Amino acid sequence: MQKPLDTARLTRLADRFGTPLWCYDAAVIRERIAALRSFDHIRFAQKACSNTHLLRLMREEGVVVDAVSPGEIARALAAGYSSRGGRDEIVFTADLATEETLDVVVREEIPMNAGSIDMLRQLGERAPGHRVWLRINPGFGHGHSNKTNTGGEHSKHGIWHTDLPAALAVIAQYDLHLVGLHMHIGSGVDYGHLQQVCGAMVQLVKDSGQDIEAISAGGGLSIPYRENDAQIDTAHYFGLWDAARKEVEAHLGHTVKLEIEPGRYLVAESGLLLSRVRASKDAGRNHFVLVDAGFSDLMRPSMYGSYHAISILPADGSESGARPLRDTVVAGPLCESGDVFTQGDGGVVQPRSLPAAEVGDLLVLHDTGAYGASMSSNYNSRPLIAEVMIDGDQERLIRRRQTIEELLALEAGL
Ligand code: LLP
């Protein structure tokens, strides 16, 4: 969301569409895309936010897309993407694929970014000649939490680097077409690890003895969740990868495309979660403010201890700055003690100094455009909430609120 917040507009949106509500600002997404234009392809990791309207925006901006399930492939197709005829607009990245998934991948000619040798073999048996990438686990990783570190020997992701020759043998056996090599070592990667991963990529290309068209830097670009966090320097990021690409080009003797595959960076800061304060209470030393959004909507604080900045929009239209500060625990409606938005790494309640909130106020959870709506669930039989896209003066409902009848429909008449 563009800062400072347009509080009158958010109040109008909450009144019109109800709360809790996801809001995205298209302008922020376009800005982030623009900052990555030096890369040959920006491939959006749609797991961060897979609303088809948002994917359409990506497509209009020339961004291609990654998919990790048949559902995500269907979303990409619905948004107008195609991989037919070598267009490669959709790439399927996974460590395993069901028979049904392989059917779709083959039918739609979607290159497979294979994270296991078994997956390559199963594809090869079915579709010799199919385009493939190899996702390599270089033996090290990094992440904002252990759960988002995707490299190293504890990670199930990718083909272990010393297994590259075995993967290449399967590619040769089935005459698969190797497009490129890919690495994604985790989310929230720092520059030190980046240099290491660039070096590993160059070495792998050399060791492979293969001719390839492209390399992929994966995703993992961090965003400033806290006020003092720095915005990533995308020129520096590109510079490191471009140097690696040039080494690869010198080695192969021709040009090589450089892809990047961010999720969070493109959408996190565009989004916020708008909730309404419905109750407050004290429990010993803790002051609780209870809002109508829960971890069934935004899971990140409960899952990773993630920090999201919080703003209060007073119901009477006054400035929140005029309210006294109060140490506050912000919690949701779910029947579970971990349903708390202000918590630390250990999953403990962590009060935050916030303007005193009152019943009826709006409470904003910032930077929730990535891994917000896409990680929501129906826990406690709560319907999925609505999503709205703001684009300049326009405000568009891009997903309506699920109904309780829709929840029950899956079990009806059986
Ligand atoms: N490429 C691959 C192969 C990935 O597995 C991922 C994320 C990305 C790209 C995009 O990573 P990003 O640029 O968004 O960091 N739910 C967690 C993040 C899990 C990421 C899983 N893979 C969170 O809320 O932080």
Structural class by helix and strand composition: alpha/beta
CATH superfamily membership of the largest domain: Alanine racemase
Cα-based radius of gyration, to the nearest Å? 23 Å
Distance between the termini: 44 Å
CATH level 1 name of the largest domain: Alpha Beta
Any idea of the CATH topology of the largest domain?
TIM Barrel
Which blocks of ≥5 consecutive residues have pLDDT under 50?
A: none
Number of strands: 18
| SS field, number of helical segments | 12
Proportion in helices? 25-40%
Characterize the overall form.
Answer: globular
* Ligands bound to this protein structure: ligand LLP
Binding site for pyridoxal 5'-phosphate: 220, 261-264, 371
Binding site for substrate: 264, 300, 304, 336, 371
Enzyme class: lyase
Function: Specifically catalyzes the decarboxylation of meso-diaminopimelate (meso-DAP) to L-lysine.
What does this molecule look like?
- Specifically catalyzes the decarboxylation of meso-diaminopimelate (meso-DAP) to L-lysine.
- It is a single chain.
- The strands form two sheets. Strands 1, 11, 12, 13, 14, 15, 16, 17 and 18 form a nine-stranded mixed sheet that branches. An eight-stranded parallel β-barrel has the order 2-3-4-5-6-8-9-10, surrounded by six helices.
- With 414 residues, the protein is α/β, with parallel strands linked by helices.
- The two termini are 44 Å apart.
- It has twelve helices and 18 strands.
- The chain has two domains: 37-261, Alanine racemase (TIM Barrel); 269-409, Beta Barrel (Lyase, Ornithine Decarboxylase, Chain A, domain 1).
- The protein is 29% helix and 23% strand.
- The protein binds ligand LLP.
- The site of ligand LLP has 19 residues, from α10.
